[in-house]
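RETRY 2/3 - previous attempt timed out on the joint model. Re-submitting the same 438-residue input unchanged.
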Amino acid sequence: MGVYNRILKKSLWVFHMSASPCNNCDIEVLDLLTPGYDLERFGIKLVGSIRHADVLLITGVGGCKVAERVVRVYNQAPKPVFVVAVGTCPIGGATFKDSYSRCGPLDELIPVNLYIPGCPPKPETMIEGLLKLLGRLE
Amino acid sequence: MIAIYTLLFPGLVFTAFCGMIAWWIERKLSALFQHRVGPPWYQNFIDFFKLLGKESIVPADSAGIMYSISPLIAFASVVAFATILGSAVFLKLEIAGDLILLLYLSSLVSTGIFLGASASANVYAAIGASREIKMLLADELVFVMVVLVPVVKSGFSFRLEAVLNTSAITSLSGVIAYILGLMCIQAKLALQPFDLPEAETELAGGVEIEYSGVLLGIWKLTKAMEFFIYPLFLSVLFFGIGKGLVGILLSVLFYLITLIILVIMKNVNPRVTIDKMLNFFWKVLSPLALIALVLALFGG
Ligand code: SF4
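RETRY 2/3 succeeded.
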């Protein structure tokens, strides 16, 4: 597994899924791909289909409608796949903590490998988090 | 010998290596266009090896056998294309009627993509497949006429050797046909403005949306090899291969210019819709290609 992980570390394809966020986190995630931050230099690329992805990036609180879709998308991903939860929402619910439509926290639905807290987290934090994930794959 | 030609030198390994590098040039130049740093040169190799280690999923309601062999069809035709073209270019070996065979193999790649996408039982893949076949219908006629121009210039010979010894680009009809050929290659490589079948932002990968793991890796390898051989095909068709060191350097330079023009076209154009693309190829480019062909016939 050692050699393969070292390869995987340098080429992470990310599939971004919104599980009922307030949309701020999504905007910050999109920021990552703009010229200012340029994740392609680490080999990180945003892909359109979960079948191509190595990382499932989830934002949001996990509303009841979307919770079952999250599980379905996770099951459709080719393994090995890593789950990264962005924002305070997947952890504690942030503003939507007491909402009647909340079926989270996320780690009750699917296993989460990495949390990136913040409401919303800064792009720098997300880069640091992803690079931590790269170190953690060892 | 044939096994070595196919697997090693002008065929699989060599073309795959050059194709990954050509694709990296595309990614790096695109990054520079957008004021980014871009990936390191080995990025495509790493992507490919990573895909080999992933799980390969065959969707439950897809046509399983077709789904799994159509990447191999496309891959095999690309390898055959690379071997025939590479033997003629690098080793001066040729077989009879090879130009016709090359045209046939290039459309077989699109057919493979079409079959794979329609077998995967996904609506986005189905849209991608229909666009792929429409694009094939649109660009094939123009491409055939473009290829006929150097054939006429070399004295009506369909053998690659004769075509490689004449440089058609020095005449007016050659220049027109070369520019039209660039657009056909753009469509065959599915780069913007003709990236309709893949359309990452619209169809989420389109034709290859359901593919994962090894099969996706084969698609990516096929695409990388196409990146090397189509510009090579176009540049040797029109420039030929120079004699001596200077001539060879000029040929390499011409190949690089062809590749870079393709990348620049990719970066300055947005995606067009399928009807605009069809209109453009049928109503604008086909008459132009015919004019170029007639010009060439009259020695222009
Ligand atoms: S963490 Fe904050 S910014 Fe992000 S989706 Fe939740 S509420 Fe919005």
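Chain B has one domain: 1-298. Closing ticket.
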